[in-house]
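This follows on from our talk about sequence and fold. Go ahead and set the record down below:
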Amino acid sequence: MHEYRTCNCNAVNGNYCGKTVKLAGWIHRKRDHGNLLFIDLRDHFGITQCVTDVSSPIFKDIEQLRLESVVSFSGEIRFRPEDTVNPNMPTGEVELVIVEAKLLSLAATLPFSVNTESAYPEDIRLKYRFLDLRRESAHRNIALRSQVVTSLRRRMQEAGFLEVQTPILTASSPEGARDYLVPSRIHPGKFYALPQAPQMFKQLLMVAGFDRYFQIAPCFRDEDSRAERSPGEFYQLDLEMAFVTQEDVFATIEPVLHGVFAEFSSKSTISSYPFQRIPYDESLLRYGTDKPDLRNPLKIVDLTELFKKGSFDAFTSIINNEGGLVRGIKVDHVAEKSRSFFDKLNEWAQNEGMPGLGHILFKNNEFKGPIAKFLSGDQLKELSAITKLADSGGVFFICSKPKTVWRLAGIVRTKLAQELDLIDTDRFEFCWITDFPMYEFNEDTKKIEFSHNPFSMPQGGLEALNSSAPLQIKAYQYDIVCNGVELSSGAIRNHLPEVMFKAFAIAGYSKEDVEKNFAGMLNAFKYGAPPHGGCAPGIDRIVMLLANEPNIREVIAFPFNQQAQDLMMNAPAEIDPARLKELHIKTVLLSK
């Protein structure tokens, strides 16, 4: 018989009755019934109930073992008494009668319970992450992640993609986020950078003649944490394709994502492909975000012209004096709500920085609300026509400057859907956001900058760069969004040196800057580069959605906390001065 175990804890069932087996694992629970001691033994695969009675010579030894101690039990499998069968466990009809027990590792007193899903502060969970991962939900999430990665890899290979690993130590690149820098010992004063993404390398693979590339790529960005973004490092399904249009990329990745979500999701509805395409400008107007949650049925409409010549001074003054815009959101059946409902919404809006949340209600062929009296009969009819307002419905209004009105309308849309329980949580709704602006104006620096990926091909190519106002130029850039979460950015790439020089010049980069920072890719383009494009769906975000977790750290085995610290390994940490000297580095801490 094997030294530790002959089968796993989830394997034993009625077919094993009368057989002697050996199981090994952690003591999950103990239940002392006086003359009987029940132990739930847990391993990676499941749980088996084990039992011993007071007449056994090993009873007292087992009784003294702490939870989470590692043991090996051997004995005979028997059926449980009928009234103790647990139909919710694969092993729930049987138990192991302990004949021999071997302590493999004694556990110290636990900092928190492992056998419950009780909430504990995140800092203690991350400090003892190896214990936290023993808990059922955390353990299940990491197993799910492994299965998802395996499925993605298989689907990509079946679609004709070649898996290639690109360098981890590379050169710093201005891609939007801060790099993590690695000092070079043999080149004093010089630094490598960890890749924010394999962007240039995967494009170089296309130039090298590979037709379809992918990898499960680690990416490193020195940026702040968010619920759907982990600081430090993350993984993405990185892919690139040669001789493709934007639609070719969409048609290739859609079956992969749909297939993975169908394979691992318990939700009843998943968007069929082709997924909906929504231009960036339309997304901001209709949904108030470039990451729309299409499970929310509410849409935003432009009502600026309706109020422009009206008598509601609170709106007309912003429109005429500040170039403001008015957005409206029509909601069915909201006129039936109590006054306290609207008062609470108004208070919420004020806490969000708005003066309030005005509305007009339509019930029994009568318009009511604080704004209705400021509109003429014709204006109210026009409002009904634009919004398709029906009896018992209402319209909520947002008025602000152009740069903020879409964002405010977006959060109002989300709030209304949440308060009225309009979001169908039993669905995965995918869409592509397309036609991103190539450039944006930075209000702080007063300069034009790339708005998305600097390596994207502008729509219209070199002619558009030469003849169009920069802020009017669109790019072949796209995001894929699911339930309000951005899974991926992508683009058709700029593969022409002359277009690259001009695109960067508009953003303030000289020809010398481009040649210095992107020498490898620029040089490659001079020797014949095919049109190419791709995207990189985030593994962490995919698993977060499939696991129905609100925080991305719940699906990462050993995540940083929100301050980009590893509390378990005490990273980042100070380095020995001798090591710094070897690297030709001196640290100078600036006063805050």
